[in-house]
Design brief:
The chain is of the alpha+beta class. The chain contains 18 helices and 23 strands. The chain starts with a strand and ends with a helix.
Length: about 500
Amino acid sequence: MAYLLALDQGTTSSRAIVFDAAGRVCGLAQAEFPQHFPAPDRVEHDPQDILRTQFDCAREALANAGVAARAVAALGIANQRETTVLWERASGRALAPAIVWQDRRTAAECARLRAEGWADDVRVRTGLELDPYFSATKLAWLLDHVPDARQRAERGELAFGTIDSWLIWHLTGGRLHLTDPGNASRTMLFNLQTLTWDPVLLERFRIPAALLPRVVPSSGVCGETDPRLFGAAIPIAGIGGDQQAATFGQGCLTAGMAKNTYGTGCFLLMNTGDAPVVSSNRLLSTVAWSGVENAEEGARAAYALEGSVFMGGAVVQWLRDALGLVKKAAEIEAFAASVPDSGGVVLVPAFTGLGAPYWDANARGTLLGVSRGSTGAHIARAALESIAMQSADLVEAMIRDGAAPLHELRVDGGAAANDLLMQMQADVLGVPVLRPRLLETTAFGAACLAALGCGLWTRTDEIAAHWQLDRRFEPQRPAGRRAEARASWARAVERARDWAQTR
């Protein structure tokens, strides 16, 4: 039997899962690695920690599955996306800690560039907001602050990559310097229309082209691992950013299909087909994947609109750690379900500002509608409703941008196990919410890209065949009550906005 090895390199841990040809989990492993916060606005990883934990997990997952490397048909990679690594080509040694996607050290530089009028052009070329979230200003910072880095980069001695590139370089013993269009589209250096590195942006951000990886399809054999790593060479046949991989693993392969990942935050991606949609509602447009049979004949790539919620599952953590309303996060469902509704309480969890479509850094958490009869259970219910409401904001913004109407929402992530939250989401959106049996959709998506890329699977139909429904949540709230709830939420958001500046 042939097997697939998926590497799922995340922000706080590395995971590896072995799947069989039918998409069943055969073995898995996970290892956390340290997070480094050298200053209030800085978040870093040791690139060697990423390599060590990810390769160890791969070996452990193979061992747990009882599968030898020679039986693995292909390897797929899913990775934290915008995190930036700069390394020496000759040795493969990172020249500095990886600057993580959460890092805000280049906020002032981004503000300066926005003041100079760059934001609109960056949005048109890349589909992204001009923000330190993305890789371009992180890389420029490294070139300016690592001794001799800029000069060495111009001489072709250094390499840049997001985590997929860093892994592939070391998986192949330094033979390959690659990325896929999905990861490239998160750097703020990649043109969505041409699907190439943008020379205008490289000049503006002062990035030498010699640093950049070669862009290859998300699905397709692009090389093989060094046989010394796992005992035999394994074809590398799938590359995808974590959210793109999760969208693929959820089978959202045609325009209008969408998935939402409920983690610390929420990431909602909607497939927009074979053309990028430049958002007028401050959503992100991104390449979803390439090299895959698409519904649109001859399409070079599939695209997606993306919106993020800063406080998803983190709201439950706040209820547990700051307010002490529950002892364990898993208790929140029963606690919130102990009351029939929120009793008019509305929570806007803008503790670190609001993400899309508001992008309001000055918004702050707001609790409204509290009466003498309000209890902790009402606040808990309002907290879960806030996750559903923020996700609905993203869907509505996507529709305003011209995306196809949403007919269903597929869900994954840790908080997707909360039945009450999923029912709330269906009620707020007015469409069914579908939860699969396998919530490891990021790793599964990487495995699917690899399976198609190596020819183990021949059609994307096989993803749907292996995708299994756990539960379907149908909307139960009447349209009139849904509209009232959305209007109440909108009023609450307006009161939360710009608070830090105007108090």
